[in-house]
Amino acid sequence: MFHGLMVIGGFVLIGCAAYGFWQGLKLKPHDNIPPSKGSRWRT
């Protein structure tokens, strides 16, 4: 039971971090990154 809770918590943390990072990329586009590279990251 404890191991299952840790696994679920880890997935939640990773999901939140990935979602926040993706939102940050969308809200603040970097000028030094070419559009082709940005589109490749968003696929």
Write the topology of this structure:
Elements: H1 2-27, H2 35-42
Keywords: Membrane, Transmembrane, Transmembrane helix
Transmembrane segments: 6-22
Based on Cα principal axes, name the global outline. rod-shaped
β-strand amount: under 5%
State mean pLDDT (0 to 100 scale). 76
What is the number of strand segments?
A: 0
Element-by-element helix/strand order: HH
Q: Major sheet: size, sense and barrel closure?
A: none
Per DSSP, the total helix count is 2
Distance between the termini: 35 Å
| Overall radius of gyration | 15 Å
Poorly predicted spans: none
Residues in helix, %: over 70%
> Which structural class fits the helix and strand makeup?
mainly alpha
Condensed summary:
The chain is mostly helical and 43 residues long. 79% of the residues lie in helices and 0% in strands.
What report would you give on this structure?
The chain has 43 residues and is mostly helical. The protein contains two helices and no strands. Helices cover 79% and strands 0% of the residues. Keywords: Membrane, Transmembrane, Transmembrane helix. The chain crosses the membrane at residues 6-22.
Features:
about 45 residues; mainly alpha; 2 helices; about 80% helix
